[in-house]
Design brief:
By secondary structure, this protein is mainly β. The protein has one domain: SH3 type barrels (Roll), CATH 2.30.30. It is built from one helix and five strands; from the N terminus they run αβββββ. The chain has a five-stranded antiparallel sheet. The longest helix has 9 residues. It is globular. The N and C termini lie far apart (about 35 Å).
């Protein structure tokens, strides 16, 4: 998981994640990962429109974000 996150940071790639939150609920977020600090991921959450810190072990799934482009 960390290698995929590091690759996304290096390529400034947005990700869709499924995250297991503090209160026992899962949520889907679109994030722009910024930095890995120990067991945490610092990211800008596009879903919440705010910086967030995620526990890496609580990230259940990641995939590149699908960007809808209007042509």
């Amino acid at each position: 998981m960390k290698k995929e996150l590091q690759r996304a940071i290096a390529h400034q790639q947005q990700l869709d994640i499924i995250y297991f939150g503090n209160q026992g609920k899962t949520s889907k977020r679109t994030i722009r990962p910024l930095e890995i600090a120990g067991d945490r991921l610092k990211a800008y959450c596009l879903t919440r429109k705010a910086p967030r810190v995620f526990v890496i072990d609580n990230i259940l799934a990641i995939q590149p974000a699908v960007i809808n482009r209007v042509v």
